[in-house]
Amino acid sequence: MEKELDWGNLSFGYIPTDYNVRCYYRDGKWGEIEVSSSETVDLHIAATALHYGQEIFEGLKAFRGKDGKVRVFRLEENAKRIIESAKGIKMQEIPVELFTEMVKKVVKLNERFVPPYGSGASLYIRPLEIGTSAQVGVKPSKEYLFLILVTPVGPYFKEGFKPTNICIMREFDRVAPKGTGRWKVGGNYAASLEAGEKAHELGYSAVLYLDPKEKKYLDECGPANFFAIKDGKYITPASESILPSITNMSLQQLAQDLGIEVERRHIPLEELETIQEAAACGTAAVASPIAEIHDIDTGKKYIVSKDGNPGPITTALYNKLRAIQLGEEEDIHNWNTIVE
Ligand SMILES: Cc1ncc(COP(=O)(O)O)c(C=O)c1O
Fold first, then answer.
1. Residue range 7-153, CATH number
2. CATH number for domain 164-325, candidates 2.60.40.1510, 3.20.10.10, 3.30.160.40, 3.40.309.10
3. Whose CA is closest to 195, among 217, 219, 214, 179?
């Protein structure tokens, strides 16, 4: 870095770092881990990633703690989830040990890009696997490239921990290829671009999808899961078409630690009338409180936060999660991997 980054004002974008790490799957096996300082890949024009979207990714974060140590949050859960994504679209599975070693290595190599404690920023880690073999028939690739890039990021929602409005639009589904919403597959995200842009144009921070089949139940937000607090309980949609969010899983555990009952179940849209708090949750969103949910198709408005402030349970969960990630509080569930 020629000059120090403005850590407190980073957006959720891409800033070049020093290195990325790569590993190739060829002749039926994964090769050696390679360190690269190139920001590009050399790809065959007929690669399956380009033509058939054989492309999966993950997203996790490293934080600089109060003690100066660098912690990666829930590395193993991300390693397990990308295996599920690989199975879903017939890609080569990445062994958990390889994933772990590469994450640690890329974070260590780029340690100077891990934002300082107290800046509110973190180092976003983006593992990516692509099918690289030339193929014009619709068949899985024989060869794969697994790479991990990192980039320092600020908050995903620029409003920070302040309630925002989201909207429901039935014309859009979470899922693109049928049933694949639950995997981190590039195509799913490309299919969500139109909904996301439309929501932003209308002045909302995100879209809240309903279940793709009946449009009766809540599903998830564009880039994050959804949870609500109802009569002191943490409720979150059980759905086949949403990504199993590792943040949501963690918040459910933290809620239980606080003696809050957790319900994972179908949540009918009308139930929004009876909730006291709501938030979008994810690696990027953390737990972003929601003020109002507007149903664009019917004109109905669900007012969640009457005073424009985040609710007490959302605030408590947010603070607890952040405290664990930043090493301010004991990591009793062993969620952090310290990079040394
Ligand atoms: C569609 C979608 N849902 C939910 C999430 C949250 O998942 P996690 O908490 O594992 O980051 C993400 C995060 O990338 C996402 O893209």
1. 3.30.470.10
2. 3.20.10.10
3. 219
CA 141–ligand 1 middle distance (angstroms): 26
Expressed in angstroms and rounded, the spacing between residue 43 Cα and the centre of ligand 1 is: 28
Interval between CA 285 and ligand 1 midpoint (Å): 8
Amino acid type, 25 = Y
Q: Which residues pair with 239 in a beta bridge?
A: none
Q: For position 98, what pLDDT does the model report?
A: 98
Q: Which helix (H) or strand (E) holds 30?
A: strand 29-30
- The residue contributing the CA closest to ligand 1 atom 6 is 282
Count how many residues are written for the chain: 340
Whether the predicted pLDDT of 177 surpasses 60: no
Listed in sequence order, the residues at least 6 apart from 150 whose beta carbon sits closer than 8 Å to its beta carbon are: 17, 20, 62, 106, 107, 110, 113, 123, 124, 125, 126
DSSP-assigned letter for residue 17: -
- Ligand 1 atom with the smallest distance to the CA of 247 is 9
Q: How much is the pLDDT for 2?
A: 55
Q: What CA–CA distance (Å, rounded) separates 33 from 183?
A: 25
Mutate to test the pocket of ligand 1, among 61, 157, 172, 245 (most ligand atoms within 8 A of CB): 245
From the CA of 243, how far away is ligand 1's center (Å)? 6
pLDDT for 4 equals 80
Tens digit of each residue's pLDDT (9 = 90 or more) over 289-314: 999 999 999 999 999 998 989 999 99
**Whole-number mean pLDDT of the chain?**
94
pTM of the predicted structure, to 2 decimals: 0.96
To the nearest whole percent, how much of the chain has pLDDT over 70? 97
Q: How far is CA 105 from CA 68, 82, 100, 148, 260, in A?
A: 18, 18, 9, 10, 38
* Mean pLDDT lowest among 176-180, 216-220, 239-243, 252-256: 176-180
Radius of gyration of the chain (CA): 20
For the segment 57-77, the average pLDDT, to the nearest whole number, is: 98
- Measured CA to CA, the distance from residue 70 to residue 122 in angstroms comes to 10
Q: Which 3 state secondary structure label does DSSP give 101?
A: helix
Domain ranges of the chain: 7-153, 164-325
